[in-house]
UniProtKB/TrEMBL annotation:
Transmembrane segments: none annotated. It is found in: Cytoplasm. Homodimer. The keyword RNA-binding does not apply. Its EC number is 6.1.1.22. Belongs to the class-II aminoacyl-tRNA synthetase family. GO terms for molecular function: asparagine-tRNA ligase activity; ATP binding; catalytic activity, acting on a protein; nucleic acid binding; transferase activity. InterPro entries: Aa-tRNA-synt_II, aa-tRNA-synth_II, aa-tRNA-synth_II/BPL/LPL, Asn-tRNA-ligase, Asp/Asn-tRNA-synth_IIb, NA-bd_OB-fold, NA-bd_OB_tRNA. The gene is asnS. This is Asparagine--tRNA ligase. Residues 132-431 form the Aminoacyl-transfer RNA synthetases class-II family profile domain.
């Protein structure tokens, strides 16, 4: 009799006979012994088949297995200190489910386009699996942070009548006879939710028709957007640094093996503890001038600027108080200096760029109306948003964390395309 198990749980079955549904990751043979590298999604284990100890049928079935063939494998679990997992299986039985022929992703090197065309299969590789496990842990720890710090989860709509972050990169669709757009950010709705529930957060997909082909941009990405009533800019920064520290420390605690699989320098992550350094936009401009960059006050930072600034720190850095002209219409001006706004971008270390954008919001009705006019936004479509300033307006702040950039940073990946199972990048909709 054998028990059904998964590779992750074999440590509970040492000395017992178990059956595991699995795929062949790799295989080698030395005449009278075959070694099967088995994977089942939860881990990897080597199955050892000794010709003199099994029936001819089992031996021949094992021989027929190719890369990515599927099978139920039965055998005795042994501790094996020389193997990476610490365990091995002495195979006693094999039930072949499906023999794979000509699996396209072989152990040799493949180009990125080829791998992206085969993303549905590429996911099975050790590294891609590890990334998805880390992503899931990041999401779990994000939810844990907000759920245990007094925030309520609220889901904003995905089909919207207006833009939240500027009108240039909207995905347009028809909503029966009306025009609709896929959401760029749930923020405006989350502001309404904060006035109902105090502290709220959302976690959902957002869409930007950005013609940016960079290693930081996706067309469809997931965002975590907390919004807090009775909270100023300064308090929001403290939430942000505690939040990011919590997420990084959770991954370090719960995903050691996966971080090793993706080759992450763990010592760099261990330094990610609140508080984080802060630098104003003004000081950042001065710093860039000292470094030889030719950027006038009032221009937005590009990736090279952000990277240069981040290089001075081994933690994420907040750049605060940007000029109003390069930021969103809803950001509250600094009362002492209205040409800059009470906002911050959090820039990740090691060149990963902006992972959070946030601000205190305008709570004054007249000023918000003025901003609408300046930005050419129609008051009709935003009437409900204006209502929030008419009925019990309060100081409030919030921010948005881009999940994929966070995964790229924590995993140390070159490109965000590997941070989500099926990335939507510029001009790629397949698979
Ligand atoms: O800075 P953004 O545009 O801010 C907002 O959307 C605010 N409404 C958030 C808020 O205050 N509630 O976007 C927030 C974050 C960025 O810092 C970045 O991490 C990520 O979303 N992001 C992208 N990630 C991948 N691909 C893209 N095209 C992204 N655009 C933004
Ligand atoms: Mg931003």
């Amino acid at each position: 009799m054998s028990t059904k198990s998964v590779i992750r749980d074999v440590n509970q079955h040492v000395g017992e006979t178990v059956t595991i549904g699995s795929w062949i990751n790799n295989k080698r043979s030395s005449g009278k012994i075959q070694f099967l590298q088995l994977r089942d999604g939860t881990g990897y284990i080597q199955g050892v088949i000794v010709k003199s100890e099994v029936s001819e049928q089992v031996w021949d079935d094992a021989k027929s297995l190719t890369q990515e063939s599927s099978l139920y494998v039965t055998g005795v679990i042994r501790e094996e200190p020389r193997s990476a997992s610490g365990y091995e299986m002495t195979v006693t039985g094999i039930e072949v489910i499906h023999i794979t022929e000509n699996y396209p992703i072989t152990p040799k090197e493949h180009g990125v386009d080829f791998l992206m065309d085969h993303r549905h299969l590429w996911l099975r590789s050790n590294k891609q699996r590890a990334i998805l496990v880390i992503r899931a842990e990041i999401i779990r720890s994000v939810r844990q942070f907000f759920d245990t710090n007094g925030f309520t989860l609220v889901d904003p709509p995905i089909l919207t009548p207006t833009s939240a972050e500027g009108t240039t990169n909207l995905f347009h669709t028809k909503y029966f006879d009306e025009d609709a757009y896929l959401t760029q950010s749930g923020q405006l709705y989350m502001e309404a939710a904060a006035m109902a529930l105090g502290k709220v957060y959302s976690f959902g997909p957002t869409f930007r028709a950005e013609k940016s082909k960079t290693r930081r941009h996706l067309i469809e990405f997931w965002m975590i957007e907390p919004e807090m009533a009775f909270t100023d800019h300064e308090e929001s920064l403290r939430v942000q640094e505690n939040f990011i520290s919590h997420v990084v420390q959770s991954v370090l605690k719960n995903c050691r093996t996966e971080l090793e699989t993706v080759g992450r320098d763990i010592s760099k992550l261990e330094q990610i503890q609140a508080p984080f350094p802060r630098i104003t936009y003004d000081d950042a401009i001065e710093f860039l001038h000292e470094k030889g960059f030719d950027i006038p006050w009032g221009d937005d930072f590009g990736a090279p600027h952000e990277t240069a600034i981040a290089e001075s720190y081994d933690k994420p850095v907040f750049i605060t108080h940007y000029p109003a002209g390069i930021k969103a219409f809803y950001m509250k001006p600094d009362p002492n200096r209205p040409e800059v706004v009470l906002c911050a971008d959090m820039i990740a270390p090691e060149g990963y760029g902006e992972i959070i954008g946030g601000s205190q919001r305008i709570d004054d009705q007249a000023l918000l109306e003025e901003r609408f006019k300046e930005h050419g936004l129609s008051l009709d479509t935003y009437q409900w948003y204006m209502d929030l300033r008419q009925y019990g307006s309060v100081p409030h702040s919030g921010f948005g964390l881009g999940l994929e950039r966070t995964v790229a940073w924590i995993c140390g990946l070159d490109h965000v395309r590997e941070t989500i199972a099926f990335p939507r990048t510029l001009y790629r909709l397949y698979p």
